[in-house]
Specification:
alpha/beta, Aldehyde Dehydrogenase, Chain A, domain 2, 2 domains, globular
């Protein structure tokens, strides 16, 4: 029997949806149970959207875009709403920090930073309102006296969010979409809907016009209706590559715009001039964040054979000392996995690694001192064949595969021998060597001597890790359409423009 958690979720109206600027009753009594990942107790319950609820949310967003004031405001006017939302994010920092550990397993000390990061994202795009060239003069090359290159909002956006890091991904999608002038249907994950509810409360508090942001929670089958709806101009999705392939095919059928941030199997290439202990400290430390449930985690550690054993020993020494437990305990370094099925998945991959001949060095079990919660020990495999299952498939848990190679050339080849291309890092004391290797790796981000993931500049992947970019100026582009206007004279405000 599932018990009720003592901690009440800091959300209001969990039995309703935020649509058209109002908290509306759902079309049915169906609901999702949100389970605390560390206690296996019921945290709270939210309404489950059905087809009529999705249709209602899309209709509200469509009317807000076609008839409402939002797309017709100036970018500076929209930026003021973004600044107001940033202030609200800061006021709700502790609320976010209470929700994320219970839904996804991140430790509370790390969760405290997510509200500030989201606020910073909104402030960044607010500042961009004054510097980005939404309308710039150009010289016509095929007739006409004066040209304007105009970047307009793409329209209604369906934003689909996963369960591992909801708030950061919500901010990365809706902040640039709002600045662009889009209206949005935000679809939260059934396993982690709390952040979406708080964001809806923030939208209400700052007075976003009705229909500009609509928030619902639905399972995959009902969510597909959002992807299929011809009134939705663009889908932005973060999640698994399997789901991304499906979304891409559906968007392709109706030529809808799509941004996909999908899976990863990222390589940490440790070159032979770099200190093994230093590399192990960086790699092991980042893998404990969110219990390894991070798409850009450096889960394939590629190292020369002569340094393989030393690196494995250094990683195992750190992993074996990691304090796994209650995410609200200040001493805890790694919390649980988010879901029962996710722990089952990770355990299945660990068994597969053993069966296929990799050497299980440390971890691989449920912690003996924890009889509740979806915990797993941080795990190291050595002598991993890059063709094996654990080296090729995304595990989404604290499991590292150390892969021996002969030299730098083979290390690059192994790093690229995957369907993914989201992230990578090169460990070397030679910055020019790092740059040279980084240019050879087929990945959206390549760090040097550290795990890097920078939504302030650009985040996204090559190959089956996705389509498009999020964060920074690159993250604004997917929410804009380019229009070229050719005039037979100069309009007001451009009399002195040089083209």
């Amino acid at each position: 029997m599932t018990l009720t958690n003592d901690a009440a979720a800091p959300v209001r109206n969990a039995n309703r949806f935020y649509i058209g600027g109002e908290w509306v009753a759902p079309s049915s009594d169906s609901a999702f149970d949100v389970i605390d990942s560390s206690t296996e107790q019921l945290y709270f319950r939210v309404a489950e959207a059905q087809a009529p609820d999705i249709a209602r949310a899309v209709d509200a967003a469509r009317r807000a875009f076609d008839e409402g004031p939002w797309p017709r405001l100036t970018h500076a006017e929209r930026a003021e709403y973004l600044r107001a939302m940033a202030a609200q994010f800061r006021e709700r920092i502790e609320d976010f920090a209470q929700i994320w550990p219970r839904e996804s397993g991140v430790v509370h000390t790390a969760a405290l930073h997510v509200g500030e990061a989201a606020a910073g994202m909104f402030e960044y795009y607010a500042e961009l309102s004054g510097t980005y060239p939404f309308e710039e003069p150009v010289m016509p090359t095929a007739g006409g006296e004066f040209g304007l290159l105009v970047r307009e909002p793409v329209g209604v956006v369906g934003a689909i969010i996963p369960w591992n890091g909801p708030l950061g991904l919500i901010a990365a999608k809706i902040a640039p979409a709002l600045l662009a002038g889009c209206t949005i249907v935000l679809k939260s994950s059934p396993e982690a809907p709390g952040e979406g509810y708080v964001v809806a409360e923030i939208a209400e508090a700052v007075g976003l016009p009705p229909g500009v942001l609509n928030v619902v929670t639905a399972d995959r089958e009902v969510s597909e209706l959002l992807v299929r709806d011809p009134r939705v101009d663009k889908i932005t999705f973060t999640g698994s590559t399997v789901a991304g392939r499906r979304i891409a095919s559906l968007c392709g059928e109706r030529v809808a715009r799509v941004t996909l941030e999908l899976g990863g199997k990222s390589a940490a290439v440790v070159l032979d001039d770099y200190d093994v202990a230093a590399a192990a400290a960086v790699i092991a430390g980042q893998e404990c964040f969110l219990s390894g449930q991070v798409c850009s985690s450096l889960t394939r550690v590629v190292v020369t054979r002569r340094k393989h054993n030393a690196l494995v020993e250094a990683l195992a020494s750190i992993f074996s000392g990691i304090q796994v437990g209650d995410p609200f305990d200040q001493a805890t370094q790694m919390g649980p996995l988010a879901l029962r099925r996710q722990r089952d998945r990770v355990e299945g991959y660990i068994a597969k690694g053993v069966d296929e001949g990799a050497k299980l060095v440390t971890g691989g079990r449920r912690p003996r001192h924890l009889d509740r919660g979806w915990y797993i020990e941080p795990t190291i495999f050595g002598q991993v064949d890059n063709r094996s299952t654990i080296a090729q498939e995304e595990i989404f848990g604290p499991v590292l595969s150390v892969i021996p190679v002969e030299d730098e050339a083979e290390a690059v080849a192994v790093a690229n021998d995957t369907i993914y291309g989201l992230n990578a890092s090169v460990f070397t004391d030679d910055v020019d060597r790092a740059r040279g290797v980084a240019r050879q790796i087929r990945s959206g981000t390549v760090g040097h001597n550290a795990w890097r993931s920078d939504f302030g500049v650009s985040f996204g992947g090559f190959k089956q890790s996705g389509i498009g970019r999020e964060g920074g100026k690159e993250g604004l582009l997917p929410f804009l359409e380019t229009k070229y206007i050719v005039l037979e004279g100069r309009p007001k405000g451009f009399e002195e423009s040089v083209v």
